[in-house]
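seq:
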Amino acid sequence: MKRTDIKRRPLSDTVLANLEDWFNNQKETWSSKHISNVRASLDELYIALANKRINQTQHFK
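struct:
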C-alpha cells in the first residue's frame, strides 16, 4: 500500500465541539488556575491541528 492510499482522518468538528462542551461543563467545578491551564492546553491542541492540516495540504500539492 502506498502512502497516498492511506486516508487521513482529521479530528472531526463534532469531536472538537464535544471537547469544548466538556470543558464548559467541567469548568464550573474547577479553580481559575486549572481553567486557565486546560484552556491553554486546548488552544495548543487547536494550533497543532491547524499546523498539521497546513503541512499535509502543502505536502500533497
